[in-house]
Amino acid sequence: MDLLSRISRSIQGSVAARASIQGQWGIRFACDFTAGFHVILAGQCKVECKTTGQILDLGPGDLVFFSRGYYHELKSHADANCIDVDDFRARQSNTSSYSKLAWQEQNETNLTVNSKKVSAAISLSDQKASEDMTSFLSGRYLFPAGPVHPLFRALPDYFHIPGSSLPLHHPIKHLVELVSAEFSRPDASEVILSKLTDTLFHYILRHWLLDHDSRTHWASLYSDEAVLRAIESMEDGLDRNWTVESLARAQGLSRATLARRFKEVTEMGPMEYLNQIRMQRAASLFREENGTIEQVARRVGYDSAFAFSRSFKRNFGVAPMQFKKSHGLSAGISISDQPRTS
Questions:
Q1: 132: closest CA among 25, 29, 39, 28?
Q2: Which stretch of DSSP H or E encloses residue 113?
Q3: Which residue in 25, 162, 197, 236 has its CB near the most CB atoms, within 10 A?
């Protein structure tokens, strides 16, 4: 399984939105359980990451990606007052410093595409464009509750891709055009929007990985083939009774050498890494299938349902049965029902 596939397994699905605003404005995104991006289609705006205080100037074609739900603000001016994105959505008929906006909101539905639940997209129609109009496209990807995949955690807090750095016919530019065009259709399809947004997400990640491979954690991961093969072995065989010794022996290394090199690359030990991806997979199985706790425990490498339940509660804060009732298929909930602040 390639790196992008491993990373993408740590998210549940996408929600896309498009907006056009004029005048002085600011929107605050407090997305505790999401990753996401904004692409500027027209006009100018600023984005401020609240964890660092850094402000970036964005123009047409610029893209900014937040990897783990960091609080940030999009705004017309550095000193513009901001409102929460939920309050912004609620102002659909209000005419203040914000443009009067007409929402075209589709009812959210529970769709299952390729075994993945997707929330219906929300489309925002704009008024006549003007010189100070800013249009942007946003995509959001929801994390399941519990530990985030260790590889995904290695991404930076956020990164900026200037539109000018992309060649004219770059796939990211084409995908942005396709998503924007689909929003403009009166028969816009949430299935198509979700697929396009997911594809755009992978292209954004791959662009960043290729551009930064020689300077980041990813280079360390791929330069140590023994660690990479150990990770692949664990992820492809979660039900096996792995130990540091068995992983090391498969790579022709001593236990101490593999443990040291593994921690240098991933910043955690092999067994801690294994536990996190097992718990993540168990949570996915509870959401996607109707297996029993014992069946899920065996599929992620636990002989004892008791030991599995204890580890699961330590990671998620609730017992497996409670998690299953709240998040599983039998609960009949969509991604939009997951706890989030945006």
A1: 25
A2: strand 111-113
A3: 197
Residue 83: helix, strand or coil by DSSP?
strand
Structure confidence by residue, pLDDT tens digits, 95-133: 433 333 322 322 222 222 333 333 333 333 334 445 578
Averaged pLDDT, 188-205: 85
| Closest to 197 in 3D by CA, of 5, 44, 13, 12 | 13
**How many angstroms separate the CA atoms of 131 and 84, rounded?**
25
Say yes or no to pLDDT of 46 above 90: yes
Work out the percent of the chain whose per-residue pLDDT is above 70: 69
In angstroms, the Cα distances linking 308 to 235, 287, 305, 320 are: 17, 17, 5, 9
CA distances to 34, 128, 281, 330 from 12, rounded to whole Å, are: 10, 35, 12, 17
pLDDT value at residue 220: 60
Residue 132 and residue 149 in contact, taking contact as beta carbons nearer than 8 Å: no
pLDDT attached to residue 76:
92
- Burial (CB count <10 Å: 0-12, 13-18, 19+), residue 334: middle
Tokens of 184: 């403009």
* CB half-sphere exposure, 231, CA atoms < 13 A: 25
Alpha-carbon Rg for the chain in angstroms: 22
Report the C-alpha gap between 179 and 199 in whole angstroms: 10
Compute the average pLDDT of residues 211-228: 65
Q: Where are the alpha helices (DSSP H) in 103-224?
A: 150-153, 171-184, 190-212, 217-223
- Does residue 135 contact residue 19 with C-beta atoms inside 8 Å? yes
- The candidate with the shortest Cα–Cα distance to 307, out of 290, 294, 322, 321, is 294
Per-residue pLDDT band at 287 (split at 50, 70, 90): confident
CA dist 25 and 78 (Å) reads 10
- The residue written with tokens 């401020």 in the block is 48
- Does this model's pTM top 0.70? no
Q: What is the mean pLDDT of residues 190-212?
A: 82
Give CA–CA dist 66/156, Å, rounded. 8
